[in-house]
Structures are given as C-alpha cells and as structure tokens.
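User: For a reading group we're discussing how well predicted structures match intuition. Take 15-hydroxyprostaglandin dehydrogenase [NAD(+)]. Before you show the prediction, I'll give you the sequence so everyone sees exactly what went in.
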Amino acid sequence: MLSEQSAVVTGGAQGIGLATSRLLLQSGAKVAIFDLSKDKLSTTCDELKREFGTDRVLSFHCDVTDEEQVVKGFALTKETFGSVDILVNNAGITSPKEWKKTLLINLHAPMFASYTAMEYMKGSSKAVIVNVASMAGFCAIPGNESYSASKSGLIAFTRSMAQSTEGIRFNCICPSYTDTPLLGEPGKELDSTLSFIIEKQGGLLKPEQVSEGIVRLITDASLNGQVLKLTPRKGFHFEKYDSFMESLEKL
Ligand SMILES: NC(=O)C1=CN([C@@H]2O[C@H](COP(=O)(O)OP(=O)(O)OC[C@H]3O[C@@H](n4cnc5c(N)ncnc54)[C@H](O)[C@@H]3O)[C@@H](O)[C@H]2O)C=CC1
Ligand SMILES: CCCCC/C=C\C=C\C(=O)C/C=C\C/C=C\CCCC(=O)O
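Assistant: Thanks. Here is the predicted 3D structure of 15-hydroxyprostaglandin dehydrogenase [NAD(+)], as structure tokens, for the group to look at:
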C-alpha cells in the first residue's frame, strides 16, 4: 500500500509514534524515526530493523525543537531513502509547569518540521502531513493549559495549511487518553484524578488504535484538512466544520 514511500515519524521511539512506525513499515513504507531519547531510539530501531530490514529503518537522534538538527534529519532521510513523502508530527510532552517548553515541542516544532518537510516533499505526488493533536484541543484540561492550547493550536494549524497548500495534504488526529508512558511510568499506579478521568472516558485507548487512524489519514487520498477524533466510547469520528466562507457568512 505504501511501498516506495518514505515517512518521517517524530517521537517514534515509544508509544503512539512506535505503533505508527510499525504500522507504516507493515504497510510497505520506509521509516525515519526522529527522537530525543537516545537509548529508547536505539533499542526500538534495532528491533524494527530486525523485523523489517536495515534498509527500511533510519534512526535519527534529535530534539525536534532544534531547527538545525531537524533540517539535517530531513536531508539525511532524503539522501537515504530517495524521497520524503509522509511526515507524522507525533513527538509531544505534557508538563503543566513548563508551559513554554510544552508550546515549543507540541506546537512550534510540528510547524517548523512541516515547513521544512514541504521543501523536501517537492516532487512527491503523495505528500501528506499528519499532526498528532489530542481531544485536549477540544476539551481544555483544567490545570494543563499549555498542553490544551498547544493541541488547539495544532488543530488550527492543520486546517489552515490544508486550505492554502497545493499538492500536500494536511490532517490531524485527536485521541483521548491512550495507554503510553506519557501518562506516567509504566507499571506505576496512576494518580487519582487521572484514574477518575480515564474511568469517565470509558477506559484507555491503545496506541495501535491511534496508529490505525493515523495511517488511514495518510492512505486515504480523499482526506485533507480533516480532524479525526478517537475516543473509547465513540471510536473514530470526524469533527464537522463549516467552510471558511460559510464561517464568514455566520459572523
Ligand atoms: N498518551 C495519551 O494519552 C495521548 C497522547 N497524545 C499525543 O500523542 C503524541 C505521542 O504521545 P505518546 O506516545 O503518548 O507519548 P510518549 O511519551 O509515550 O512518547 C513520546 C515520544 O516523543 C519523544 N520526544 C519527546 N520530546 C521530544 C523532543 N523534544 N524531540 C524529539 N522527540 C521527543 C519521546 O522521547 C518519546 O519517545 C503526543 O503528541 C501526545 O501529546 C494525544 C492524545 C492522548
Ligand atoms: C475530561 C476531559 C478530558 C479531555 C482531554 C481528553 C484527552 C486528552 C488526552 C491527552 O492528550 C493526554 C495527555 C496529557 C495529559 C496526561 C497526563 C497528565 C495528567 C493530568 C492531566 O490530565 O493533565
């Protein structure tokens, strides 16, 4: 399905990014993983190389907020795989006390990576960028304003780019709470507020469910500017928006 296509997945060493990298590889793509955690990146890429072949996996250690490194990563991906067709902006953090860092990683970095990728995607007939936002972009989390703001911003960025960019599709996915190390150390009990929220939302999603949505947004060429929500109760459902002109008329 995705053979001859090459993807960059940021934050692909674990969690949703790892599930997405694996599904892209299973679908035939070559995958470059950009991640900050040297150890996890190395363990994950060794495993994926054993499973899918050394020539289909590229490991690139970087901080997505370091613009020079990100440009190097795209250049290396193009040099190694011959093209850059797919970008999944997945790396993200939650750190309520570090609001500037949260905005830098969750919003500024995906925007910079998208603008950079667009340069490398020239000539690709199948170029697509998927941003991993969150239901927190819709249901603002009390006390986690930088995270919620970063995800609302990422949704708006995606929709805006989709309307003004020729030849590259932009979509985003908004999962609710998902079972990954982002929620806390694996095996350690979750704090009571988080447990309460997770029970209310009907349990945790699995990273493999989220990756299925991401790959759908990549492979279905009819989808552009789409915001795909995913929750345990409702499953996949697209957010419905007025067109820009319809919105203007309603002002
Ligand atoms: N786990 C959840 O409940 C949900 C997560 N999301 C979003 O999904 C995305 C992935 O999250 P998870 O897999 O849950 O997180 P995770 O913490 O399991 O994995 C994130 C990965 O990103 C990497 N990373 C973090 N900062 C980085 C940086 N500055 N440069 C490069 N790599 C960096 C980490 O090393 C890690 O490998 C994030 O954008 C998150 O906001 C969205 C909705 C729900
Ligand atoms: C009850 C409304 C919930 C709305 C948000 C829905 C899902 C969002 C999920 C995420 O993106 C999870 C990411 C960050 C929060 C994770 C851990 C911190 C715990 C405290 C908190 O919830 O902020």
